Amino acid sequence: MEAVSLADWFKEVANWAFMVIAFPTLFAAWRTVSSNNIVRAVLYLVISLAGTAAMFLMLGAAFVAWTVVLVYIGAVIILFLIGIMITRAPLGVDSDLSHGRDVMLPAALLSIVLFAVTAWAVWDAFGMIMIQPFEPTSTADLANVLFDRFVIPFEVVSFVLLAALIGGITLARRDNTGAKR
Amino acid sequence: MTVVQFVLVGMAFFSIGLYGVLSRKNAVLILASVELMLAGVNINMVTFDTYLQDQLHAGQIFSLFIIALAAAEVGIGIAIILLIFRNLQTADVDSLDLMKD
Amino acid sequence: MHRLLTIASQITLAAGEEGESAAEEAHDAFVPGITSGPLVEWAWLIVVVPIIATFIIMFWGKKMPFKGWEIAWGSIGFVAIYGTVLFVLNATQGIVYEGAVEIAQIGDLTLEWGWVVDGLSIMMYFLVGVVGFLVFTYAKSYMKGDVRFTWFFASFSLFAGGMLVLVSAPNLIQLIVGWELVGVSSYLLIGHYWEDLANVDAANTAFMVNKVADAGLFLGAIIMAVSVGSFRFDDIIDVVVHGEAGMLSQYAFWAGLLIFIGAMGKSAQFPLHVWLPDAMAGPTPVSALMHAATMVTAGVYLLARLFPFYLDPTGMFAGDVRDIIIVIGGLTLFLMGFLAIVQKDIKKVLAYSTVSQLGYMVAAMGAGAYTAGLFHLFTHAFFKALLFLGAGSIIHAVHSNNMLDMGGLRKKMPVTFWTFIVGTLALIGIFPFAGFFSKDEILASMKYAGENGQDMANFILILGIAGAFITAFYMTRLLALTFFGKYEGHAEPHESPKMMTVPLVALAFFAVAAGWINWPGVYTGFTTWVATRIPLTGMGDHHPEGLDWSLVVIVTPVVLAGVVAGWFVYGRKKKPQAERDSFRIPVLWPFFENLYYIPDFYMNAIVRPIMGPISRVVLWFDMYVIDGFVNLVGLGSLGLAKVVRVFDQNVVDGFYNELGAGVGGSGSGLRLMFTGRVQQYAAFSFIGVVVIAVLFIIL
Predict the structure, then answer these.
(1) What SS3 class is residue C425?
(2) How much is the pLDDT for A89?
(3) pLDDT digits (tens, 9 = 90+) for B34-64
(4) Which carries the bigger pLDDT value, residue A45 or residue C595?
(5) pLDDT tens digits along C198-256
(6) ipTM
(7) Do C615 and C524 have their domain in common?
(8) Given pLDDT bands bounded at 50, 70 and 90, which one contains residue C8?
(9) What pLDDT score does C2 carry?
């Protein structure tokens, strides 16, 4: 396992690209949880998820990246926006989206501690070990593994999706029989 | 590129998401924060998949599973929020304390 | 890049013996001066800047001094300048360049995002940039005081950006992305005043009709890509040029037809034209841009991009589709002109006029006249933008769209009046205004195509000449009713502010001068500019040595007759507005006023029959299948529950009651911690996680 010095790290162009992606992404993630405008928070979620997709591309996981784009940015965001509209959330600035300071500070503290602990653990374990040069994963390879080795989890996931579909329908449809009972 | 830089971003996503889950009042935004946490996990998965040069690509496969499950989760989550909204006329989680007692 | 050049030379060779000498001549003349360098390599900025501007306006626009307008204006100004530089360099040296970034590899298919910089796309950059710039300038004062001012400019930038994505596309995928971006942003813009339900309906109509057409485009693109093995225009044209039809030969007709249906939707061809007149519901600057440089030109652009495929020199491809194209174009230009005569809304007159002019362009493409179609697109963009902005200026002054509320504005709004006159003369095709040259070239091309074996072209030529008469007639009516006679409106009309009149004057300049760049026999630069990538001489495109005098002596008197007839009917009497507009021909006029009953037909023959049964099927499915399934599951669990209950009550409860008593005691102490709030539970569990993590690290 090859380690790299900090100076060499800064010399690598890819790392600069990484920083260009990572910092706005994290900023967007932060705004997702802190914005007082509900639509804007969800739009920031789009940006941060797009940032993760870009990072997957950097890691050579193109298929995962495009799946993120299609599923999250395409479909899930629409669900969120529909959720916002259906619940008639106040569009525009609304300070009532978050708890007060008494909840925020402990929550922030807990998150920071969690981050510090895990970050320290990861740093301790890996330090400046490099990711070896790699070939981007081809979709064909991924498909071969998915439908060969991981075919049972795949089926399970499909069943879960079916269950979610039926569950979603049963939950969301108006219960007209209730009145008669 | 080092392992740590990606994992740190993943951890940061997870922590930010956790903060959102704990501090948000609006149920839709709590779901959004959960998505952030899952995104952090995905970054971890893919990073280690690439780092380990895994022939099975287990990390990527499982991040795909996570994405699928997250989509299902959002669908159900929104349906539940819709139901709550229909019954209580609010999407504010503070009003949901039926689990008390 | 060399590949493009070889394609170019092969096309000329494939043109056959007849056109050989002309083709070789063109090939000799065709030496693009610029095939690399920073200017073209950075041309992707043209596409990216307006889209970035959209997001900047969306997020920060409201806080800016001009509420986001300056960003939109700056970005479109950048496009205008870059487009002009490219246009001038293309005119002087010739540019052919294609940049691409690979964004994904799926199986054998490579997805690319690219930017094409060649004669055709440069013309579009120039048009979108310059017309867009003037319209954006104008829109600032037109939209002043609008509640959604910032949002308007965000969508407007996206509209321009989407069009630029479309015209810069080197492959069908990117073209479709741009195509949809334009569709979505037009939906937003048409429905801008969504407080009024009619406007929402108009936006929906536009979206739906375009979607119907888009289905054709998608299917056509898929057939094309599967049989050629690539989405790239280069590869498609390569196949056409080499005559290696392969799989494509069986499907070429259908691919060509389906793609043309897509083009029909965006370019509002009969019978998919219904959305464009309704699209008037949007603010006037939107109409101006939509009808001139953006959106409606997309269909014509697509036909031009795939022109060799349709022209089909080897007879293996979509040559037969051209007969359909020319008929559709001819019908559109003829039928839609009539509808403009009976409209009361000034913008609707101009809208039907646009549909009719688009018919000319499409018919020209169908006649195999690449240059003529594009040239009319080019000149039309300027004078139609001018006419729309002029109409906007009038509406701004009199606060009404209805022409019966106008009249006598000639003295009160001199700048608007004179620029409007220029636009009208250009539209009806009076020498030396722009429309004269472009319409003459289209008609000349029809004649040429008719002489060279395309029988339909002769018939469409007659329709085209009749269309010129109709155009002159309704434009005269419009002028007579708005600018002449006595003013009858309620508001106090006044000349519009400088911000609005300056773009009018600038567009008036273009409406005159744009025609001179393709003056047969004097200067025909335009022909070579748009053909820098594929020299088309000898491919059926007609390049007359001089003006076709036999046509001019027919068309110009016809146009003048239209003006005189229009003036005779609508302008002569100094009577009240409503009385002046009382001219009716018994059977025809009701027919026109009901828009040939096409909207009624759509409603009764398509929308209702489909909507009724579908909603009934969905209801039935919901009531019986889903409910039945849910009930079945419920019954099953009920049975299971009965079995379980017996076990539960006797065995389990006994155990848990005992346990419960013990836990209850300790639970009441812990109860203070549990408030019933899920988030607190989550917090506690994560505190546990942190503690465990720390323990793991330490141990």
Answers:
(1) helix
(2) 61
(3) 999 999 999 999 998 888 887 888 888 999 9
(4) A45
(5) 788 788 888 888 888 888 888 888 888 888 878 888 888 777 777 676 666 777 888 88
(6) 0.87
(7) no
(8) very low
(9) 40
Residues of A in Cβ contact (< 8 Å) with B90 = 87
Other beta carbons within 10 angstroms of residue C50's beta carbon come to: 28
pLDDT in tens, C596-641: 777 777 777 776 666 666 666 766 666 666 666 667 767 776 777 7
Asked whether B91 and B28 are in contact (CB, 8 A), the reply is yes
Q: Which chains touch C (3 or more CB pairs under 8 A)?
A: A, B
Chain B nearest CA to C690, separation (Å): 12
Asked whether the predicted pLDDT for residue C676 surpasses 70, the reply is no
User: Per DSSP, what are the bridge partners of residue C98?
Assistant: C116
* Chain-chain contact of B99 with C683 (C-beta, under 8 angstroms): no
Domain ranges within chain B, ordered by starting residue: 3-89
| Cα separation values, A75 from A40, B70, C513, Å | 17, 11, 49
CA dist C44 and C32 (Å) reads 20
Structural domains in chain A, sorted by start = 2-173 (1.20.120.1200)
Provide φ and ψ at C303, rounded to 5°: -60, -40
**Contact assessment for residue B47 and residue A59, using Cβ atoms and an 8 Å cutoff:** yes
Distance from CA of C472 to the nearest CA of B (A): 58
Question: Which of 1.25.60.10, 1.10.287.3510, 3.40.50.2300, 3.90.79.10 would CATH assign to domain B3-89?
Answer: 1.10.287.3510
Mean pLDDT computed over C21-47: 66
**C-alpha to C-alpha distance for A43 and C379, rounded to whole angstroms:** 41
Q: Is the pLDDT of residue C29 over 70?
A: no
Q: Which residues of C256-278 are buried (b: 16+ CB within 10 A; e: fewer)?
A: bbbbbbbbbbbbbbbebbbbbbb
The verdict on C525 and C664 lying in the same domain is no
Closest Cα in chain C, distance from residue B25 (Å): 9
Nearest CA in chain C to A37: C59
Check if A118 contacts C (Cβ < 8 Å).
Answer: yes
Give the closest of C674, C678, C683 to B93, CB-based.
C678
Crossing angle between the packed helical segments C248-266 and C197-228, to the nearest 10 degrees = 160
Q: Which two tokens stand for residue C175?
A: 């073209």
Tell me, yes or no, whether C487 lies in a domain.
yes
B residues 31..70 contacting C (CB < 8 A) = none
Same domain, yes or no: C382 and C486: yes
Across the range A29-45, mean pLDDT stands at 88
Which of C250, C245, C69 shows the shortest CA–CA distance to C150? C69
Residue C16's pLDDT band (cuts 50, 70, 90) = very low
C657 CA: distance to closest CA in chain B (Å): 17
Rounded Cα–Cα distance for residues A135 and A126 (Å): 22
Contact call for residues B92 and B27 (beta carbons, < 8 A): yes
**Which secondary-structure segment (H or E) carries C498?**
helix C498-513
Amino acid B42: pLDDT: 93
Interface residue A170 vs chain C (CB under 8 A): yes
Question: Are C377 and C316 spatial neighbours (Cβ–Cβ below 8 Å)?
Answer: no
Domain that holds residue C660: 599-689
